[in-house]
Amino acid sequence: MNVRLMMRGANAPVPGRRRAAKLLAHEIGALVRLAGPISVGQLASIAMMTTDTIMVAPLGANALAAAGLGIALNMAVLIAMSGVLSGITPLVSQSYGAGDRLEGRRVVVQGLWLALILTIPVVALSLAGEPVSLALGQDPAVAALAGDFMFALAPGVLASLLFATLKYYVDAMGRTRVAMSVAFIGVAVNVLGNQLFIHGVPGVIRPLGLPGSGLSTTVVRWAMLLVMAVYIARHPELSPFRGASLRPHLGRLRSIARIGFPIGGQLGAEIGTFSFAAVIMGWMGPAQLAAHQITMNVASATFMVAVGAAIAGSIRVGRAVGAGSRRAVHRAVVASYLVSLGFMSVCAATFLAVPRFLLELYTRDPDIVRYGTGLLFMAALFQLFDGAQVTGISLLRGAADTRVPMLITLLGYFAIGIPMAYGLGFHTPLRHMGIWTGLTVSLAVVAVLLLWRIRLVLWRRPLVAVVATRRAAATPLVETAVGSG
């Protein structure tokens, strides 16, 4: 009798494991609910670039190459500056987790001041697009078009960075649907603006060609900022100015900068590497550069879903750190990797299965499609590494660990990715495929090293919040639905 009971108990599910599985399932559900709107919003941003690419393509290979070059140069600096501003996300989410929302509002006010300062270098680059392109060895015709395109982007830089600051704040407060909705409005405005400014309206608006696409992007950025500001104004509980001083506060600016500048450096290294790939691809010819631009657009669309899961994971980790729950941190990490890598696996299979179909959504130019087919094969290979690296670095941001991850990305992209891309691209028969092989290897190195860093920081070390909060009743985490964690 006792033996039978013992055998039955040995085969029965362990209650602790059932509870752990239930908690993880709850965490995945919470993560997906948070990540869904972020991912859709990110996809809407890519949809704007996609519509730009599709509507510019009929202007010819030079225009398409110039658009790719201009976007690569402009976005490399703009995204780096936006990354600096994202330093507000862990500060706001940890304040939220600790129940001190006033501190979160104080942080975002300082983020708005920082956005004003960070506008300057992006505008300076945008106004010097043609000489920079020529200095990078681009075809003069392509450089001239890229310069005009980037000049038209300059007036929208401030709006883009102010919007980014408000988006990080609203996302960290858990209202991720707001930015998603605003992004869809941006897509609609962009389609209309491209039609009006690229092709013109007879007797009303003269066609501007490629610069018209840049002007449309500028209009979109100001429109999105206006909609976000109106939303916040209509929801007083979100107002960052309620109870917070509007004056610059050196201490909080330093806190944002201490977290944000390594993030900006990491994003600058990543985007800079891919921008360098666009530059050296341009040395091979307009068709190769156009194929690179289309392939990057396709890969970026799938990447945005992984970005959404990663950002949601960062917010979940930040709240768990603020609440002092190590187990909640661990569940957020596991759930983020499962969602991100699962989706990227499906995308990799799609790239391998139907490459021509994806490319011909943009163009039927035989040379561009031929080069692009090979590049999509490489893009399929690095999907998992790309998803893993963005998940790892975002989870560490939630814990405000940004300096070492920045050094990891500098090692992976600058010490490995760029030299390998150049060497394989110009000193082996791989040519354009060699450039993407270098990118793939760099992503793999970064992904593995970030996983090691997560194990060290979020498993072995004590959890330390980076904000000084008045610990009120902490915001409930997912474990409250099924028991304390």
Walk me through this protein's architecture.
The protein is globular and about 60 Å long. It has one domain (21-464, 474-481). Mean pLDDT is 85; it is low at 1-10 and 469-485. The chain is mainly alpha-helical and 485 residues long. The protein is 81% helix and 0% strand. The chain contains 17 helices and no strands. It has helices at residues 2-11, 15-56, 61-85, 88-97, 101-127, 129-135, 140-153, 157-172, 176-199, 210-233, 250-284, 286-323, 326-353, 355-359, 366-398, 403-426, 432-460.
The separation of the N and C termini measures: 36 Å
Summarize the main sheet: none
Oligomer: single chain
Gross geometry: globular
Total beta-strand segments: 0
Compile the SSE list and pairings.
Layout lengths: L1 H10 L3 H42 L4 H25 L2 H10 L3 H27 L1 H7 L4 H14 L3 H16 L3 H24 L10 H24 L16 H35 L1 H38 L2 H28 L1 H5 L6 H33 L4 H24 L5 H29 L25
Helix pairs in contact: 2-9, 2-12, 2-13, 3-5, 3-7, 3-8, 3-11, 3-12, 4-5, 4-8, 4-12, 5-7, 5-8, 6-7, 7-10, 8-9, 8-10, 9-10, 11-12, 11-16, 11-17, 12-13, 12-15, 13-15, 15-17, 16-17
Offer a quick outline of the entry.
The protein has 485 residues and is mostly helical. It has helices at 2-11, 15-56, 61-85, 88-97, 101-127, 129-135, 140-153, 157-172, 176-199, 210-233, 250-284, 286-323, 326-353, 355-359, 366-398, 403-426, 432-460.
